[in-house]
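Please produce the structure of this protein holding heme C.
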Amino acid sequence: MGWSVAAVLVTLAACTIQEAPRSDTVVATRTGARSNAPAWSADTWQPPVVDSTPDDPFEASVYRGLAIMTHVRDSLPSYTGSNLNCTSCHLEEGRRGNAAPLVGAYVRYPKYNERAAAVIPIEDRVNYCLTRSLSGSKLPPDSREMQDIVAYLAFISRGVPAGESVRNEGLAKMPDLHGDSTRGRTLFTANCARCHGNNGDGMGAFPSLWGQHSFSIAASMARQERAASFIRNNMPFDRPGTLTDQQAFDIAAYIVSMPRPDLPLKELDWPNGGAPTDVPYDTKNHKAFQPPPRLIPRTNDPAAAIVGAPASVGRSR
Ligand code: HEC
Ligand code: HEC
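Below is the modeled complex.
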């Protein structure tokens, strides 16, 4: 081990050519020529608006990307088994805070993903949602549809400097509570069933919460705390914020206790250990947290649901 690290360092040093900066080298500086430009601020930044009458190829791609994300099943019928769209969870076209906003996400990739224990490109992150949150099949990274989605993601991050954060990123962290699925069932009937259906399968434009057409066991939304956070801040759709933290946990406990599509090789998630406590399946050094009594086998090609970590093509010694 020790010698190989040293060998790599020697190689790196040998390859590093120290060049004097050229006069046209682009250097970011706070005191340089551009110091009159206002500093970037998460409080004032607004994501750009998508032009619905695109007049160049990039705008057309952005527009197609948004259309795919709001109509996944119509656009890519053989790529999803669910009745969800990307925007079923990434609300307001990915612009709403505390609903896993996608504005600003593009500038954080490539990024280390703990579940995969790998640095991944944004295409892989999209495929994680496609295979897990939409219980579907991965898109070829070099397909036009994937590049349209990425074009949309890049566009709505315009103006955010690389590595910066926008407001209300992700799903807000919840207090350390535990849901009761029996209470959750009653609350579900009173607050959610009118749109999502008593059997949780959704209705028309209202997406499924469990069953064959919903997100899979390996989606973040299948974790009690993540689901509670989404529900607490965003549901009921027409009255968000009316549930207490405990009620959100109770309903989340009920929803995630129901059968939903499986994901092959989910036990290989978090290969270095360290899975969050509410992950509902076994992984390394982690016992499944309240797993649903039954999982639904996938109808699509299981191999198409597996997004591997980027593999090295370098010479193996
Ligand atoms: C069932 C809900 C759900 C659906 C449907 C869904 N996602 Fe996600 N997505 C999430 C959650 C939850 C996260 C993680 C947010 C967090 O914890 O920061 C996430 C994360 C992401 C990220 C990474 C964001 C970041 O800040 O790093 C991207 C990109 C993304 N989703 C794209 C998509 C696309 C494209 C689709 C449709 C093909 C989609 N998602 C469908 C729930 C969903
Ligand atoms: C007025 C109708 C309505 C009510 C009531 C409602 N929802 Fe939703 N829900 C929606 C819509 C619509 C979406 C998708 C958003 C979109 O497509 O813009 C959604 C999305 C969701 C999602 C993410 C997508 C998915 O299918 O997993 C979850 C989880 C969710 N709702 C849970 C709940 C819970 C729990 C309740 C009760 C506390 C509830 N909803 C009440 C309309 C509703």
